[in-house]
Design brief:
The chain is an alpha+beta fold. The chain has two domains: 8-168, Sandwich (Jelly Rolls), CATH 2.60.120; 178-279, Arc Repressor Mutant, subunit A, CATH 1.10.10. It is 45% helix and 18% strand. It has ten helices and ten strands. It has helices at 92-96, 121-140, 145-168, 178-190, 197-204, 208-219, 223-241, 246-252, 258-269, 273-279; strands at 8-9, 21-25, 35-37, 40-47, 49-54, 57-62, 66-69, 74-79, 84-90, 113-116. α4 (178-190) packs across α5 (197-204) and α8 packs across α9 (258-269). This is Helix-turn-helix domain-containing protein.
Amino acid sequence: MKTVEIPVFSLEKSNATTDACWLGEINDLLRNGPVRLECHLLVFITSGSLNVVIDGTSISLQKGELIYVRSGSIVKITISPDAAGTCVCFTEAFMFGKYDRVLTDYAVFQRSYFHVDQYKDKQYARYESLLVLMKAEFHEQQANTGSVLRSFLNILLCKLDREILDDHKIYQQRIPKEKIREFKYLLEKYFATHRSASFYASNLNITTNYLNKLCQNQEGMSCGDMIRRRIIVEAQRLLRYTALSVIEIAQQLEFESSSYFITFFKRNVGITPERFRKNNKK
């Protein structure tokens, strides 16, 4: 049965280190779902398989595969009886402290999720060795454990960035234009309250026309389209995973009225919110 609110998974009450970071076996985590993540999640499979549903998208993982899921996503994980592997959960506060803008330095954080298909033997061994060291450090809890884990995590994230860069054949550059990364970061924080391209352009110290040009060149859509897409993603999450009424969802997303929300949703999705909810009933 759907609940009024989507259950939240956070690290506040877990056996985590400063601010926080948690490592453990995949069988220790996220048995019940779906839940909204309030931390970033990495899962590496060493045997068996699992299925993870991320905002309605189903992905199967086998031995030697890894997946990253961004904080804020709604996930449900089904684990096979013979599955084994490692989970790494961490918050932005743990990784970056007060330096929020460092988040934009990693290409992986610009995605809702990133699935790395099966590794070659050499690559698999490297990732497995790194995660073994991280787990040992986490469980031993010695002096400066947080700093050591942060360093290991930085290596892991950099390796994932290489995978992304390889996928897109852009060895000589990061995801182009730092401003587009910063825009995505701001959009994630303010999509429900600020829908004007000028708001984001102002915060990025660029013109609205230039921001639109960046969005068109790098994302294939206008700034306004990206804002609307993010609102629709959240609306679909709430319709699929909660029992909130259409009126309540409209209010939560700060629409002036439910009728305006319905019109907005139908224009962008092609069906009404109620029809979307009925089509996605389990």
